Amino acid sequence: MAVKPRTNHAFKRAIDVVVAALLLALLFPVLLAIAAVVKLTSGGPVIFRQVRVGKGGRRFVILKFRTLHTATPAYCAKPSSPSDARVTRAGRLLRESALDELPQLLNVLKGEMSLVGPRPEMPLFAQEYDALQRLRLEAVPGMTGLWQVATDRRGRIHDQIKYDLYYIHRQSLLLDVQILMQTVPVCLGGLRAIWARRRAAVVGLPAARLEGGRP
After folding, report:
1. CA distances from residue 142 to 72, 113, 117 in whole angstroms, order as listed
2. Does pTM surpass 0.70?
3. How far is Cα 187 from Cα 35, in angstroms, rounded to an integer?
4. Rounded to whole angstroms, how far apart are CA atoms 120 and 145?
5. Is residue 65 classed as helix, strand or coil in its secondary structure?
6. Collapsing DSSP states into helix, strand and coil, what is residue 171?
């Protein structure tokens, strides 16, 4: 059964285009700096490309800054931790801060993605969707979403259908703004975690203790 969201699609699309274009212009120096770091520290291509499944099952090529070594297969299992040997030195920072996702602003401009929505999955996962999971394809995929900002998220993203269905049924401009606002501290939290681990390595203390958690 098709989902009928409350958001006006034309209005949402207009906001996506304006905000994505503005962010690309404002962040252009940052994008150049990241591209230079990726190129200088690990060689190979700066941009990672991978086929994903979007609204209505249409496939498109998602863009990211490359965070894995060039010998890593494009469709391998996702690294489970920053210490994964496949992750480049610069890639650890980019992945934890989500800065590797910034090239997807181009996907947003092209209409393949939205700023907010369910994350697009690889075809090998999408082809195994059951009837409930296929409802995820009723919405334009997003750069961020409820699952990304949830405090209780666990497991693989394609298994967390409850977040996507909640968003699809209740999506609105207000909900999009709330998710975007919550995305910023989540990304900053990744940077703080990196800083805490580096401090821990210097003084010989557990990172969790430096972050205010349990040692």
Report:
1. 25, 5, 4
2. yes
3. 19
4. 11
5. strand
6. coil
Handedness of CA 99, 103, 106, 111 (dihedral sign): negative
Tokens of 13: 């699309």
3-class DSSP state for residue 86? coil
92, 82 Cβ separation under 8 angstroms:
yes
Residue 159 DSSP symbol: G
Dihedral pair phi/psi, residue 214, rounded to 5°: -75, 140
Residue 102 has which token pair? Answer: 């910034």
Give the per-residue pLDDT at 153: 58
Look up tokens 């393949």; give the residue: 112
Q: Which phi and psi angles does 112 have, rounded to 5°?
A: -80, -25
pLDDT at position 66: 96
pLDDT higher at 113 or 189: 113
**H helices then E strands: how many in the chain?**
9, 4
